[in-house]
Amino acid sequence: MHPAVSSPLSARQYGLTLIELIVAIAVLAIMATVGIPGFQQFTARNEVAAEVMRIKTALALARNTAVTRRRTISVCPRPTPDSLVCNFTDWTHSLVVVDGQVASGDLTDGTLLKVLEGSGGPTVTFNRSYPVRYQALGWAREHNGTFEICGRDGKGVKVIVSNMGRVRIGGEADGAPAC
């Protein structure tokens, strides 16, 4: 018989050494230090992009509905779900698409067509104190303006509604939003 000899290659090691654990924690700390600020900027940019999409969706829906129904369609912010008036100073609230003029901000003047919930993230302002209103031909004549969307990181974007009713994102020539 052969004597039982223990070889170092056959022994199994379970667990980590203290040095391996310290190296792993150091690598994790470096990755977190580099990654977290980048992730915060990423989420701030995505919040602004989502808000731009929400506004563009509401305006496109209103314009298409105005042309399809051959009626005046308005878009304005509603502070609470049971509110019967629009609040033209804060466009971060839910956006409502209304069949009708909504001249004074009174939602009982028209029929509510769609509600696009507010995101609660970036701040949104509009440089007019009245709703965006599309006429039967899809024009926003005399109800055009500029939305300014400002994110958490102080950067933002402009969404511009022309007299013809078209919506575009502001470029360098339009100036930076006042965030």
Automatic annotation (TrEMBL):
Where does the sequence pass through the membrane?
A: 14-36
Q: Which UniProt keywords apply?
A: Cell inner membrane, Cell membrane, Membrane, Methylation, Transmembrane, Transmembrane helix
Compartment(s) where it occurs, according to its Swiss-Prot or TrEMBL record: Cell inner membrane
Q: Which residues form the General secretion pathway GspH domain?
A: 52-165
One GO cellular-component annotation of the UniProt record comes to: plasma membrane
Membrane topology recorded in Swiss-Prot or TrEMBL? Single-pass membrane protein
Q: Per the annotation, which location comes first and is thus the protein's main one?
A: membrane
Its BP terms in the Gene Ontology are: protein secretion by the type II secretion system
Q: Which InterPro entries match?
A: N_methyl_site, Pilin-like, T2SS_GspH
Which family does the record claim for this protein? Belongs to the GSP H family.
Q: What is the name listed in the Swiss-Prot or TrEMBL entry for this protein?
A: Type II secretion system protein H
